[in-house]
Specification:
13 strands, 269 residues, 3 domains, six-stranded antiparallel beta barrel, alpha+beta, OB fold (Dihydrolipoamide Acetyltransferase, E2P), elongated, Elongation Factor Tu (Ef-tu), domain 3
């Protein structure tokens, strides 16, 4: 049944193609038409720019939430990360700036005492003060550069982690999968079809809507001979009616593995 479900999904909604596997030969009075849909169809984007280095799945493959679908080439980002980590860990320039600042502070202290004692001129005092301030600014600049290097390293780590494109939910990989060496350029890397739970779209005459609200648990019939029954539960009813058919769409959910998206079905309230 799993293989058949995959084939049905990849083929697209069968009821939209005029094919009716799961057609029910005898239609009871009062039966409501319905269609079985996937819970969601998720287009997986490439979170960072680059070439796909690896694609780990194939169309029709079932994946679990968190599985790696594909990887983006992050070699350049890895090299940039190594440089940023070296700058963040390096102490030579910071130690040199600290030493210059210490010397400038001592020289200014001496110059200040000499100026107060009338030993040196105001110009010499101002020069010592300027050297002290310059050394202090250089020390602060080196400290800021180290902080920036650490922040840049963290940014690159996040970017590299995003190179792993993971499944946001469990489901089945659809067609249109990109290949290694391709760049997404706005196209999805893969399409994930989430089928747990599945959604049932029921076309309800306006006059029967209240009855369904009062009985949220129903049974649908599907399958090659209409012999597969599935328990479904009301999720919500559309607030808009179709004026042409005088019907409203009601949506149910089911986790029955014996039915597949694309089947037509019917509900007998």
């Amino acid at each position: 049944m799993r293989a058949f479900l995959i084939a049905m999904i990849l083929a697209g909604p069968i009821y939209a193609q005029g094919i009716t596997p799961g057609a029910i030969p005898l239609r009871p009075v009062g039966a409501l038409d319905c269609a079985i849909l996937p819970a969601r169809i998720i287009e997986l984007a490439q979170p960072i720019a680059g070439v796909l280095a690896e694609v780990r799945v194939r169309p029709g493959q079932h994946v679990e939430q968190g599985d790696v679908i594909a990887r983006v080439d992050t070699d350049i980002l890895q090299a940039e990360l190594a440089q940023a980590e070296l700058r963040a860990a390096g102490t030579a320039t910071l130690q040199a700036a600290q030493a210059r600042s210490d010397v400038a502070n001592r020289l200014y202290s001496s110059a200040r005492r000499a100026f107060d004692g009338g030993v040196i001129s105001a110009a010499a005092h101002e020069e010592a003060l300027r050297d002290q301030l310059t050394a202090q600014f250089e020390l602060e600049r080196e400290r800021e550069a180290r902080v920036l290097a650490e922040a840049e390293a963290e940014r690159l780590r996040i970017q590299i982690a995003k190179g792993d494109i993971r499944a946001p939910a469990s489901g089945i990989i659809g067609e249109g999968l990109l290949a290694p060496g391709e760049v997404a350029s706005g196209d999805p890397v893969a399409t994930l079809i989430e089928v747990d739970p599945m959604r049932i779209e029921v076309f309800v005459p306006v006059g029967q809507v209240q009855r369904l609200r009062e009985a949220p648990d129903q049974v649908i019939q599907a399958g090659d001979r209409g012999d597969v029954e599935a328990q479904v539960r009301l999720e919500y009813i559309s607030p808009l009616a179709d004026q042409g058919s005088r019907t409203i769409r009601a949506y149910y959910t089911t986790d029955n593995e014996n039915i597949a998206p694309g089947y037509r079905c019917m509900m007998i309230p």
